[in-house]
Amino acid sequence: MNTEENPWTIIDSKEVYESPWILVKKFDVLNPVGKPAIYSTVSFKNKAIGVIPLDKHYNTWIVGQYRFPIQEYSWEIPEGGGDPKVSYRESAERELLEETGITAKKYTEIMRMHTSNSASDEEAIVFVAQELSFEAASPEETEVLNIRKLPFEELYKMVHQGKVSDAITIAAVYKTKVLIEEGLI
Prior knowledge:
The structure is a single chain. The chain is α+β, with helices and mostly antiparallel strands. It has two domains: 9-44; 47-181, Nucleoside Triphosphate Pyrophosphohydrolase (Alpha-Beta Complex). 20% of the residues lie in helices and 45% in strands. It has helices at residues 88-100, 152-160, 167-181; strands at 9-18, 22-30, 36-44, 47-53, 59-67, 72-76, 79-82, 102-114, 123-134, 146-151. The strands form three sheets. It has a four-stranded mixed sheet, with helices on both faces. It has a three-stranded antiparallel sheet with strand order 1-2-3, with no helix packed on it. Strands 6-5-10 form a three-stranded antiparallel sheet. A hairpin with a 4-residue loop joins strand 5 (59-67) and strand 6 (72-76). Helix 2 (152-160) packs across helix 3. The chain is elongated, with a radius of gyration of 19 Å. It starts with 8 loop residues before the first strand and ends with a helix.
């Protein structure tokens, strides 16, 4: 068998739970060695959109909030759900304005990633936003946010020292660091 082919056989599937944001399915399968098994997945109805705003002095803005699923406070780049029917850039513009009050003239898509592909199909799309302007933030009612301005290098150190646990933020910061060092941002 080609190692890039699907080694799983689906016997049956059942939708276990659905909300406006996710769909959870349970699959009865034969695993790669042909034994019966159960596999469950979470499908996301939106894309995860992240934005690293950078001013001309390489300052950035992060948001802090209490994250219910992990029961911890988390510092992150501005991020949220983007409707797949809307352009990812439009979703990035909305999230950045909503969470920080920042608008930008220039958006550069820097990466796409799957956040936890062993159990979910969530895909994240991340942008760097530049040529910034400032307005009032207007977070959603589920978001109690602290906004923090800091040099990008300080955020990089926070990530590198393990003070940030959000996967999208970690990947985006490392990618942005490389792009800055290569003179591409």
